[in-house]
Amino acid sequence: MTTSVIYWEKNTPRETLLKEKLTIGPLLFSSLEKFRLRVTLTNNRTQHTLFIMDGLIKGLIDVALGGNNDRDQDNDDDRQSRDERSRSSWAEVVSGDQDSDHRPQPQQKQEEWQSEGSRISNRPHNYKKEEVEPWQKDSNRQRPNKSDEDNNDGWQTVGKPSRQTHKVPKDNWNSYKLPSDEQQYSNEVEVGARVEPSEDELADLSRACEKLWELDLSRLIPGKDYEIDCGEGKKVYQKDDMAQGSLFTWVSDDVFRKPTYARFLSLLDNYNPHQGSKEVVTSEEKQEQASFIEEISRTAPIKYLHKFLASKGITSGSSQDFKRLLTSLWFDLYSRCGTSGSSSAFEHVFVGEIKQSSEVSGFHNWLQFYHEEANGKVDYQGYIFPRRRGETPDSETQLLTIQFEWNGVLKSVSSTLVGVSPEFEIALYTLCFFAGQEDNHIQLGPYAVNIKCYHLGNQIGSVFPIADS
After folding, report:
1. Catalytic one among 348, 355, 371, 452?
2. Is 224 annotated in the active site?
3. Of 258, 306, 364, 452, catalytic
4. Which of 205, 245, 356, 388 has the most CB atoms less than 10 A away?
5. Using one digit for the tens of pLDDT, what is the confidence trace for 380-424?
6. Is 109 an active-site residue?
7. Any idea where the domains of the chain sit in the sequence?
8. Is 146 a catalytic residue?
């Protein structure tokens, strides 16, 4: 008896299927890296066992018997459409913000810093937090289990391996919804005069941003706190999947128990990803926003940001005024794609949005990427070749330009800083918004970076890093 497993993508052209032929009993199939349909075949029976149904059984029969011709034209059209989209300008492709000239319609700002208690969420859409599940604390690193890979009972797997699922610890998430007087926060970081900007830093944005990099005390260490596998490189317009597996091999559980990281993660599922859908923000979600701002305000990067903006006269020396400024800048809802109250800086930059034209817009945060990849919603497809030779990314690289699909929708180019803390990104992007221009050429440790910052009136339309050429 011959038993094998193959993977078949329903939109794969017939000529591609026949490039590499795998013999299974009396039938011939292609060996593919991408898969959507898993089929079990044996040579002594004609029964086909379908494990994952992402197409019709007829499609399988068509491939086996040489059919599927009707689909080829559709696939060619789809391929041409996606290739044309990939040839837009670099910054537009990275941001997904060709609609950046829309003017925001901010909703009425909250007058008081603290939210008024909490209530049960009654959101109309289905983007809900999962129920908190028991968390096993005996394993800090979610490495792939090699014994599981080897123990396949004679099955042959062809194509990209299934991802290792990893549930992010949610030990304290429910407490983040509580009123301010019931919250527990970290102690203030004592850094003394280090958070006082110098005259040189006040006069030179790049020096100020480099100081923020130095003050990011919670930045992770590659190989110690997490590990990535960049896979193979590709050009922007290429749509072949160049990654054999996930971008993140493992991330230490301790990372998700860091106070600012945990509070940031609790915000990610507060949004409807479909651009143009009006957001409904509950009192509990407002409290999550407030508790996040309060937590990061105790860190060195945010303290430095406050001192810098106060020195420039952008905000007062009052910590409450400053926290209101951050809350308004990042969480106030505004109009995008003609729908008022449908977007915010936080949602666009960190969470991401899906356009009606089936393109991913925004989505420039590594924690969101890891979270969605661990939940099977992100398919990493390889890094984009750097503009300068000799700068191929590896497991130590903390500035990546990558391609992926999110909920089945392509993001041709996305750039992100990997392993940096939430407070660092909030401080960096806020600083560039108030003190910089659209292009902000700076140095972050070993990386020459252009922080691209688009304004939507008095709000952040989009902001993200690009590796400087």
Report:
1. 348
2. no
3. 364
4. 205
5. 999 999 876 667 899 999 999 999 999 999 999 999 999 999 999
6. no
7. 3-85, 97-143+163-467
8. no
